[in-house]
Design brief:
The chain is an alpha+beta fold. It has one domain: HIT family, subunit A. It binds adenosine monophosphate. The site of adenosine monophosphate has 13 residues, from loops.
Length: 139
């Protein structure tokens, strides 16, 4: 499938759609997932347009994993979660719903099940507050 430059993450990169950003550098952006599977669910995307891991340049892949490591540490600090899950889905058959590659950073704790994938909108005020807390924890 050809990359669709009108997907929602491409619009976030271009500043045409809003996002609760927690981190940005020359090559990546991280922001809150608006239908979180757990409190603190954050996404990290490359600015390079690529649908999946198979389309991404090695340079953008390196920047993406570096940013993911940095932001995951901030999510852990901000949420105090004992576990952090990383997920990255390639292709509809794998469950991908937005066709611009991204890593999910999902805080986990024993006894707390994950909410359904991309199902229920978060409270925007809570999301904004969480974004500020995570952004402040980025080192
Ligand atoms: P995937 O199914 O791996 O492609 O994940 C896409 C993720 O993007 C889901 O977890 C959605 O909840 C999330 N999502 C969709 N639209 C937005 C948006 N406008 N801002 C933030 N997250 C979004």
């Amino acid at each position: 499938m050809a990359y669709d430059p009108n997907n929602i993450f491409a619009k976030i990169i271009r500043g045409e759609a809003p996002a609760f950003k927690v981190y940005e550098d020359a090559h990546t952006i991280a922001f809150m997932d608006i239908m979180p599977q757990a409190e603190g669910h954050t996404l990290v995307i490359p600015k390079e347009y690529a649908e999946s891991i198979f389309d991404l340049s090695p340079e953008a892949a390196a920047s993406l994993i570096k940013a993911t490591q940095k932001v995951a540490a901030a999510v852990r600090t901000a949420t105090n979660a004992p576990g952090i899950m990383l997920a990255q889905l390639n292709g509809a058959a794998a469950g991908q719903t937005v066709f611009h590659i991204h890593f999910h950073i999902i805080p986990r704790a024993g006894g707390i099940d994950l909410s359904f994938h991309a199902r229920k909108m978060a409270d925007m005020e809570k999301l904004k507050a969480l974004a500020a807390k995570i952004a402040a924890a980025v080192v």
